[in-house]
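User: I'm curious what two different proteins look like when written out as structure tokens. Can you demonstrate?

Assistant: Sure. I'll show them one after the other, since each token string lines up with its own sequence. Here's the first protein:
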Amino acid sequence: MMEREHTMALEVREMDFYYGSFRAVKNVNLDIEPRKITAIIGPSGCGKSTVIRCFNRMNDLIPGTRLTGEVLFHGQNIYATDVDPVQIRRLIGMVFQKPNPFPKSIYENVAWGARINGFTGNMDDLVEESLSQAALWDEVKDSLSKSALALSGGQQQRLCIARALAVKPEIILMDEPCSALDPIATLKIEDLMRELSVHYTIIIVTHNMQQAARASDYTAFFTMDTTDRAGLLVEYGETNQIFTNPKDQRTEDYITGRFG
């Protein structure tokens, strides 16, 4: 039998995730479209950040956690015993809620990941390319040796995106990347995501409904199951459909502000 071609960026199958004995997320089935922006929305405590961290095995770093089901990347379950989680995190990068540049120069922040991954090309070119992709080059090209901590919050977040891009990922996960930023910096990040989605698959967790509606192609709405407090995927579809014609009453109640 021929193996079915895997056209999705990620395929999530029957995924449950546990912190110790507590099941935080249950029965997630999701196909993530390549080179599109998928937003994950839902009320606090419904497991949005947990879900996105399952996609590159970041939760492995928390003792006592476990996952059942599958997360398929190029048709391979990333939780299989022979898969190297460090390699997965290189191919599926992460940008966090709070900008977290290293206390190093702007240049070294971008070069660091590539260097530890054994990059042997022209580092100056890679740094320029990554900063350009992150729409930051023109602002910092004359101050690459300055500390990254001297940048504004929005610039720091774009630097963290440049740092993620420098290791040549296929997927970029963003966990509330604008929650610490002002509206102008937020719009810059949204514009940047749109530009990057030509070449990268982007998955963003956001509590900002307007941001999900503006910036994403697909939206997944999670809520908390009232019986066992586990996060639950209620509805997933094209963003326009989710926001204008949701199929589930719980989705409609959340996006119209009646709940959540």
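Here's a second, unrelated protein for contrast:
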Amino acid sequence: MYVGSDALALAPLTRRIAYMEDGDWAAITRIGAQIYDREDRPANRPVRETALSGALIGKGNHRHFMHKEIHEQPVAIGDTLRSYINPATHAVGLPDLPVDLATVPRLTVVACGTSYYAGLIAKYWLEKFARLAVEVEIASEFRYRDPVLPAGGMALFISQSGETIDTLAALRYARAQGQKIAAVVNNPESSIAREADVVLPTHAGPEIGVASTKAFTTQLAVLACLTIAAGRARGALDARAAGELAVALTETPALASEVLGLDERLRELAQDIAEARDVLYLGRGAAYPVALEGALKLKEISYIHAEGHPAGEMKHGPIALIDEAVPVIFVAPSDAAFDKTASNVQEVAARGGRVILFADGKGIARLGRLARAHVEMPAAHPFVAPIVYTIPVQLLAYHVAVIKGTDVDQPRNLAKSVTVE
């Protein structure tokens, strides 16, 4: 008999799992287990056959799980998109939602950590392409604020494990406030999935590394599909525009594969970053949450202090940090905000900052001379650029951590599933 906080942890040991409910406790012996409820009465919790398999959990030819999982992203993104997009018509199909996307007054997105950054990107997408009002909340702060939630609204909870206790507590608060509940999770048998009205599953497969990689990009793939469906339902996207976005999404796995070809270039760049004490990541628009994610990844696994900021906010404080010792990484896809980002690159370069530029060929032609180093990204539709530009910041953090000799897959003080507040 085994006890775990996540079905994935038990996958190498058993496929037969019983989920305990709040207040339950269990007496475990070598021949069995008896579960009791909060009133100390015997409780018969159903035993399920989980779809997770220990056979899926291995490093293959990779040194670390994180490196393997970064390289699995083209397949994971493709598998996820195939479950939502019709390959013949490029129409997006979602599970039956508990609200009408055409009339829902507001979507409240709640998550923690990397999943919270996925929610921030979704806010840019849903407001721009679906004209749907979105609020994005940090789960650990959400219910303590006693937020006002609209009648007829929907709350969307994002969690890799589906067991994050802050997110689960926020879900219960939102339900008590009359919100319909949707969940984006990688484990459809998890607590959050079981308590949601509808589940929008990712298909990342098991993710062992504590620092989320393929779970994050598949969350973005699901949220992008939700955006297209909402845009069509609300009349913000006509069939042609929706089809264009869907085609761009279906090209993302190929672009992800192309980015993985930059692995050696990013390894070289990591040599310089590994010597830094502080690193700044800057971006505009949907690239801003990617900057936040890049900074978080570097902090998590290399233990280098890093901050992500909106590039336009640099003049309101962070610019004081810029000197020769601080690498400044710009996430700069060729989108509507590129010209403004270019101005920020010039400001940093004029102050002697160490500009590192992530941009496509067009962007590097304009700004490459101002950068100490650059990484040339494949040209991508602005809609999918946040997915594509996430992968190199993951790889950069990975290689920096390897150089510094940290425990990449199990960084200090962190856990894969955060099950205590």
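A detail about the second structure: The longest strand covers residues 354-360.
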